[in-house]
Amino acid sequence: MTIWEIIIVSVIKIAIALTALLLSVAYMVYFERKISAWAQNRLGPNRVGYKGLLQPFADVFKLLFKEDIVPNAADKTLHTMAPFISLFVAFATYAVVPIGPEVNLFGYQIKLVVADVNIGILYVLALTSLGVYGITLAGWSSGSKYSLLGGIRSSAQMISYEVSMGFSIGGVLLMAGSLRPIDIVDAQYGWMWNAIVQPIGFITFVVSAFAETNRLPFDLPEAEPELVGGYHTEYSSFKFAGFFLAEYANMIIASLLIVTLYLGGWQIPYIDKLGLSEGLTTVLQIAAFLLKTAFMLFVFIWVRWSIPRFRYDQLMNLGWKVMFPLALLNIVWVALLIMIFKL
What we know:
Strand order of the largest sheet: 1-2
Number of helices: 12
Number of domains: 1
Number of strands: 2
Largest sheet: 2 strands, antiparallel
Shape: globular
Helix content: 55-70%
């Protein structure tokens, strides 16, 4: 392809990815409310649109037209920047996650990923470590002790679980021999999914993802009974919506990464031996990837409404005394597998 064709294809990919992510975030709120209603024997949203399907749009309009209140004691510049930092990190991470194999469209070979880079996983880890700045700056700049405590909790929590998350991914990189997400998916051919080969790494990564996204039972930076709302106590209107969007976008990104790193990505075991056409195979593989992601999102919601919040000392003990040693043990286990079975 010429340079202009590459630019046009990239712009189209970015537009599709952003649209899909924004719609997914909006409807994740809807599905969370519906699943929580099912868990608690309630109805959930059922007024705006058929079965409440237009409720996400009503919520967005409500937040847009609310008054934007900034406390007098707040640092107004950082108070405004904080939600945009969180949003940028959440949306930029999506760029390196592939949702399917390479396809032939209009005579061009198109990779179903916005940016196919060799250091994709390193890029993800770098961006997720920046996400803490949005929350910490929000807490500090609000001029509220409750917000500040939430921001400090978030920084301590994310540092603790990022270590475990990084070491959990170490086993995946050893198996694939590459930092490129597409190579990691290709290495999980058949039933060689990393969740099966290294279940300890899979569990530690999933638990770390819950802590990384500030979801129950690890939502200590918000903790309404203790901190009134934590780091976003002093936020309203569209700025509050920014943090809300970032949380759900992070949940979707975490699910995409779990599927890519541990659940085989778009791989369907031995589908290439069924003799299906290339087009049908590709459609089934993309559908498999989306179904796996939907299942992980359901798990995120299910856990939220099933397990009570940890105390802060329990959270830190779990991060440093349980998750970190297990992540190291997983690396040793994978290294032994590679040495013994020449994987």
